[in-house]
Request: fold
Amino acid sequence: NSHKVNTPILRFHEFTEDWKQITIGDIYDERSERGSEEMELLSVTMNEGIKRRSEIEGKDNSSDDKSNYKIVHIGDMVYNSMRMWQGASGISQYHGIVSPAYTVLKPKMSITNEFFAALFKTRKLVQTFQKNSQGLTSDTWNLKYPQIAPIKISVPNLPEQNKIAKLLTLLDLRIKQQERLVSFFKSYKRGLSIAIFDKKSLITNSTIRTVTLGSFCNIIMGQSPDSASYNTEGVGLPLVQGNADMKNGITTPTKYTSNPTKTCDAGEIILSVRAPVGSVGVSNQKICLGRGVCSISSPNNDYILQYLKHCEKQWRTLEQGGTFTAISGDDIKNFPLMLPNDTEIENIVRLLKGLDNLISRQELQLEKLIYCKQGLLQSLFI
Reply:
């Protein structure tokens, strides 16, 4: 339908009418009723819409005096007046109250709530919200009802609203299912790692050695150009921009010295010695090793990587410093490493790497679903 001015690019075939251009004020009035402490406190989340405050983790910053809090009814559109330029809005499924910093909108006519919940999240409309927000900086931008009411939107008839809403609701359910699946496999792997490395309940052979990381692995520490040995010892290590990443490893550094003499080969373990302390990944290509990281190589790199990922909490106990924390080279080299026999190591690697691959595939599927929804939000609306 791209040849038509007031129809979306992607459309269900049974609908042919042009969409009507109206204002948000034609659809919604502001609800200004005030509540009381006895009513349930609600909050607007960025990704999950309206939730009960009791279901949200974190500090409760609400005022003790809630006499000025606004009443919300089921089906109301609620948005954070100071975060509408980021898309902080949603349709309430609950009766309750919200902070005076929120704006509550009540429908003036029969509409499909889920359609407008999605419409208010589209990139084009969020950018319009930003343009109409008042304030000098993003910290003070504010979009109250008098500013949002005149904003023009294009909407279809009620049956088409319903059809679009059903599609997006189904996709949202599928995304939530995929999120739960990813979360389940990650939790399952954490449980297995605890059973293997802490409880040793999955180790069938009782002969387990504990050695230091430095005695079993070849460890090369990155150095700062401020270090006295940086040039005198001919190390010539360049800076690597950024730390090791738990999921993606290290990418190509963006800053080099003129003549680096040491490198990290693809497949070697990169351990961050700075915040976020304990992050560990695998080099995905041959890169130069620099400040803030160390390179670890051994005949059992796959096993070492799984072990180090599991030991994140132990790494944090070794942090030193104030504003910028780090782990010393000696602490890294003296870090205890649990070593079962070679057969056990192979079995552990096969099990945990298999789960990593499964998790990666499920995360990729989740990314595809989210990307699909983003595309639909651009194509199903004007």
In short: The two ends are 11 Å apart (CA to CA). Residues 81 and 112 are 23 Å apart (CA to CA). Residues 158-198 form the longest helix (41 residues).
